Amino acid sequence: MSDDDNSPISAREAKQLFAELKSAPALVLAVSGGPDSVALMWLAARWQRSLARGPLLTVVTVDHGLRPEAAREAREVKRLATELGLTHRTLRWHGAKPKTGLPAAAREARYRLLAQAARAAGASHVLTAHTRDDQAETLLMRLLRGSGLAGLSAMAHVSERDGIILARPLLDVPKSQLIATLKRAKIGFADDPTNRDTAFTRPRLRALLPQLAAEGGDARNLARLAARLARANAAVEVLADGAERFLLLRDRGVAPQPGVRSFEASAFTALPEEVRLRLLLRAIDAVGHEGPAELGKVETLMAALDQAIAAGPRAAANGRTVLKQTLAGALISLARGRIHIAPAPVRRSKGG
Asked: CB 120: neighbour CB atoms within 10 A?
């Protein structure tokens, strides 16, 4: 990409952005009507036309039913999509809206509807218009929430959700370049006022970015930091994979129990702390039935495990259970020198 953050994206640069998607049978483009997603649609359409046989493109707009202008914006997206020769669908988020956590709920609904649209269109990927600016904001949000290394890696260029691949081809592109691209093409776009609504966290952080940029913390540097943390996170994941294989080799003579993860406690404690945390997280998420475990709670659990392993050799020798805790629908116990992670009994409802 060009180093000029205010230069329009050329046809050659667009070809590079979408190069890895050339062999996909069909793609869904998530287009809300704002500048980022409209630019995504225009660039993808231009790229597709340059191919002898490119993927089938379907444009999907999700109307969350939260703003009266959303229906009109969806019609505008449909009009432009039709001019570009693309199929368009508007999907609506029906039902009651939560009073708290609205952005997260709306995001979940959006991805659910996009995945449904992708399956209906026979598409392998959903393309979203997340930019370098979005990446910087995501890093800041997760930093303030105390996320671990995986969370601070922010968004990946490619991920998976509900069996559909999510691709973010514009993740290294500044928003200013997308706006410059649309201006040169003389294409209009919508302005969503919720993007400036300081009742929500992301707009508040967005308003701080100019001050951070003055201190060197601009979107380019923040996104670069996220990329470096992603690189480190990938390296730790490789170490965790190796540690899993190591623990399995130590257990060659131990009969496995179906649906239960088990580690030799002494071998487990010899591993680096971050690797142990990831192994616990993997095991709890694999057998638990209450959703992903929170990192902070797993850290507390591991501290309790370390303390029990260090203080309980006599109890372990006598066959007593030294520790037993539940977390995220998993039952974690320490007995006879081994850590066991099994599904926890399902909690009875108060009315049951």
From this structure: 12
